[in-house]
Design brief:
- The structure is a single chain.
- The protein has 715 residues and is of the alpha+beta class.
- The chain folds into four domains: 5-166, Prim-pol fold (2-Layer Sandwich); 170-234; 326-573, P-loop containing nucleotide triphosphate hydrolases (Rossmann fold, 3-Layer(aba) Sandwich), CATH 3.40.50.300; 583-713, no CATH class.
- The chain has 26 helices and 29 strands.
- Strands 3, 4, 5, 6, 7, 11 and 12 form a seven-stranded mixed sheet that branches. It has a five-stranded antiparallel sheet with strand order 13-14-15-16-17. The chain has a five-stranded parallel sheet with strand order 19-20-23-18-24, with helices on both faces.
- Strand 4 (80-82) and strand 5 (89-95) form a beta hairpin.
- Helix 13 packs across helix 21.
Length: 715
């Protein structure tokens, strides 16, 4: 058996234990004669016997007591072992003088022992129920002064308590004794511990056998009575849910995760909304034991470009942050967005800024829509994605990944994922991204799979996070339904040629303010979110945009109106795919009609370009007829620019459309077979044919303008 280096001392003595047990093999306790060389040959578990070379241990049996000694820093740094079942520590020490055994008490309860003479502790890598004793801190065993050490422990040692050695035989003695049976009877009567100890003084042998024997007997009797009603025993403790160390809310306190470095060593930490910091150290996991967070995985910051910085932590803990307000952060974001991204509609800047801010309040939202930047090549969509990445919460800009990687990093850090050029990904990454979009937008939805290896078991991962992606081709209906779509028009303006320099201090300063912002205002954001209503948006599509609307409401009523109105227009585009008002669908329908009309009447003036060259004009042949029908002359004049951008981008995203510019106006040409395949893939071919009530067209030679017609009616 492998024995930790710190315990490989020729003066230390070991006891051979049964496999998967704390119990010594027959007569081993009496022998106490095994040195390191003999012990390491043993195939079962091992215990180390205290007293030799004045070796002793502090055995902690209570999480509350562990939190107490960690918070006060009572024990010096030393070699520490984590137990297999309770996951609590044994702290090893060597004293300058021999010590006696004693019991430790905290808040009136027995919480541990000082094991120093003729006692044992199970050592690593012994195993019980497939769980190992592990080295928690591989430091040198600390040498302590007996007098000073006992003074440290004095508040936790009852006065006049006789120190008595406890060995495995006590179990048998107490179980067969009068004292054990009497304690059981008193427990069944409902007596308290103090009442039992008072009454037991009348029985011979109880006082003389010492406090260690009394405590041991009481504990065994208590466990026995407790086990008489197993159901009640198992209904006492609530299940502790695993939380992300990245961010969350625990006992009403909001927190964000980060990493601190000391002497080049990383230490996971969380910073809380009540301005406290908890650090995970080797022998002092404050996150778990002081803050009480039951987290599943460590804070895997290696993949993250930006985290809650030490400068931001200092500012949050020690400085005044009154100047960090909803309006101040919003204004800074708007300024940056307007400098590097062109939107034809001012409201899009407000929507994007609210989306950015909402990424720092993830514990509040019940759904988190994905952001889909929809644009043709050269429209600064990649730049927009990078801006969001560099102002994001624990943000990751992904170039190559697997779904398994996404599961771990999101579950650990709750990090944002920003995915550029979705259309260029291979099928595996497209599938992983689509799954992230569909599963991770709703809190509580998890991705499950069967684990690998010999002991396979179901595994689940929480993918709830903020995700941004961009492409030129669009997404499937279900993915789009979970997205806030912002279309970026392509323009040629010199003022938008400059690329952001993300190493400039302005980016880090704004990012730091956003991390602080997320801890400063969670309560008011949650209250606003929970009570938010809209007179104009209902149901699921209100649920999707609700985080952005909550942020907008806290900025100003004007911003709220802008975000609400632009989302209303987006809803009209989505919900009215009854094919009467959707610009893209109507454009496809119009193009199909143009080609069909050409086959029966090529003399129409509007088709003169198409009939002679195979090209049709974007504005005059497609956009204008649709706009006039939908809005009339006055309404079309206002919508013309937006319609031209949306429809032009839709055609440009698909490589089957060839385009050219003639006298400043765009013209398009398409192979009809490829056009039909595109419509079929998008699920639009059948609705178009049904609405037009035309004969199916099998093929067309776009170059000559000739079409082959079939007489079979569309069914």
């Amino acid at each position: 058996m492998k024995i930790p280096t710190q315990l490989q001392d020729k003066d230390f003595r070991f006891v051979l234990l049964k496999k998967n047990s704390k119990i010594p093999i027959e007569n081993e306790w009496q022998k106490q004669s095994h040195d390191f060389e003999d012990a390491q040959k043993h195939k079962g578990n091992l215990g180390i016997i205290f007293g030799h070379k004045n070796l002793f241990a502090i055995d902690i049996d209570s999480k509350e007591f562990l939190a107490e000694i960690m918070e006060k820093g009572i024990l010096p740094l030393t070699f520490t072992v984590k137990t297999a079942l309770k996951q609590l520590p044994h702290y090893y020490f060597i004293s300058n003088e021999p010590l006696e055994n004693c019991i430790l008490f905290f808040n009136g309860q027995r919480v541990g022992e000082l094991r120093a003479k003729n006692q044992q502790c199970v050592i690593p890598s012994s195993e019980i129920d497939s769980k190992q004793y592990e080295v928690w801190n591989d430091a040198e065993i600390c040498l302590v002064n007996k007098k000073e050490f006992l003074k440290i422990l004095e508040p936790y040692i009852k006065k006049n308590a006789k120190n008595t050695s406890i060995n495995p035989q006590i179990k048998d003695e107490s179980r067969s004794g009068l004292e054990y049976r009497k304690v059981i009877a008193l427990l069944r009567e409902g007596k308290t511990k103090e009442q039992i100890f008072s009454q037991m003084l009348a029985y011979s042998g109880w006082k003389e056998k010492g406090i260690a024997y009394q405590e041991f007997t009481y504990k065994k009797a208590f466990d026995y009575v407790k086990s008489e009603d197993k159901l009640k025993a198992f209904l006492i403790e609530d299940r502790k849910k695993f939380e992300s160390i990245g961010c969350g809310v625990h006992n009403g306190i909001y927190y964000e995760g980060t990493i601190f470095y000391k002497d080049g060593t990383p230490y996971p930490a969380i910073i809380t909304s009540d301005k406290k910091v908890y650090i995970k150290q080797f022998d002092n996991d404050e996150i778990r034991y002081s803050f009480g967070l039951n987290y599943k995985g460590n804070f895997y910051e290696e993949s993250l470009d930006n985290i809650f910085s030490k400068e931001a932590v200092k500012r949050w803990i020690y400085e005044n942050t009154d100047n960090i307000t909803f309006k101040s952060v919003y204004d800074k974001l708007i300024t940056l967005f307007k400098k590097y991204i062109y939107f034809e509609d001012e409201r899009k800047y407000s929507l994007l800024a609210c989306y950015r801010i909402a990424g720092f309040f993830m514990p509040i939202w019940r759904a988190r829509a994905r952001l889909f930047l929809y644009a043709e090549p050269g429209s600064a969509k990649s730049r927009g994605t990078q801006i969001l990445h560099n102002t994001g919460f624990n943000s990751i800009a992904l170039g190559d990944w697997t779904l398994a990687y996404l599961k771990e990093i999101i579950q650990s850090t709750r990090g944002e994922t920003h995915i550029d050029d979705f259309e260029t990904l291979d099928e595996e990454k497209k599938s992983a991204t689509t799954r992230l979009v569909k599963v991770g937008f709703m809190k509580g939805f998890k991705a499950g799979k069967m684990g690998e290896g010999k002991n396979r078991k179901p595994e689940v991962n929480d993918l709830f996070n903020t995700t941004t992606l961009n492409n030129t081709e669009g997404l499937d209906f279900i993915s789009t339904d979970r997205c806030i779509t912002i279309r970026i028009p392509k323009i040629s303006k010199k003022e938008y040629d400059e690329e952001p320099k993300f190493e400039d201090s302005i980016w880090k300063e704004l990012r730091d303010e956003l991390y602080i912002f997320g801890l400063k205002y969670p309560d008011i954001v949650k209250e606003t979110y929970d009570n938010l209503k809209s007179e104009n948006i209902r149901g699921r599509l209100f649920f999707i945009i609700k985080p952005e609307l909550a942020i907008a409401k806290l900025i100003s009523e004007d911003v709220f109106t802008d975000v609400e109105s632009i989302w209303q227009e987006e809803i009209e585009q989505r919900l009215n795919t009854d094919f009467e008002t959707d610009w893209e669908f109507l454009a496809y329908k119009r193009i199909y009609k143009l080609l069909s009309t050409l086959s029966t009447n090529s003399t129409l003036s509007i088709l003169s370009t198409l009939s002679t060259t195979g090209f049709f004009a974007l504005l005059n042949d497609v956009v204008k007829p649709i706009g006039l029908e939908l809005y009339g002359d006055e309404g079309f004049a206002k919508a013309k620019r937006s319609m031209s951008i949306v429809i032009g981008n839709s055609l440009s995203r698909n490589p089957i459309f060839k385009k050219r510019q003639v006298r400043g106006k765009w013209q398009y040409k398409v192979n009809f077979e490829q056009f039909k395949s595109l419509l079929d893939a998008k699920g639009l071919l059948k609705p178009i044919l049904e609405l037009l009530e035309v004969d199916s067209v099998d093929s067309v030679d776009s170059d000559s303008g000739k079409m082959a017609i079939t007489t079979e009616k569309i069914k």
